[in-house]
């Protein structure tokens, strides 16, 4: 093992254990990369090892959030920006799908109301 990559190997081991827990128990985990003192070499090694997969999710709310699947199934890169576009958080998320990218129940409730409004105003017989 290369001694200058100790934190990167520690994170890869943590990811492996989180993947096992995700598979066996359905438990997701988020690793805040800001909490790990990664050197440039370690960050580069981790980036190269996990790589990038084919799925990218972009949430364009008041702040921009991007999730990029890694080439390791169940492992996602997360990048959260503030309203000025500055990166405020980088994560590795071990999950089937990023939770924040899912439609939220309250948003679905609003969508139902919107569709009911559209139907009642244009075609009331569908209600």
| Poorly predicted regions | none
User: Helix proportion of residues, in percent?
Assistant: 25-40%
Mean pLDDT figure: 92
Largest sheet: 5 strands, antiparallel
Quick tags:
127 residues, alpha+beta, five-stranded antiparallel beta sheet, 3 helices, 5 strands, 39% helix, elongated
Present the secondary structure layout.
Blueprint: H1 6-25, E1 29-32, H2 40-50, E2 56-60, E3 64-69, E4 75-81, E5 87-94, H3 105-122
Antiparallel strand pairs: 1-5, 2-3, 3-4, 4-5
Give the gist of this structure:
The chain has 127 residues and is α+β, with helices and mostly antiparallel strands. 39% of the residues lie in helices and 24% in strands.
What would your notes on this structure say?
The structure is a single chain. By secondary structure, the chain is of the alpha+beta class. The chain contains three helices and five strands, in the order αβαββββα. A five-stranded antiparallel β-sheet has the order 1-5-4-3-2. Helix 1 runs parallel beside helix 2. It starts with 5 loop residues before the first helix and ends in a 5-residue tail after the last helix.
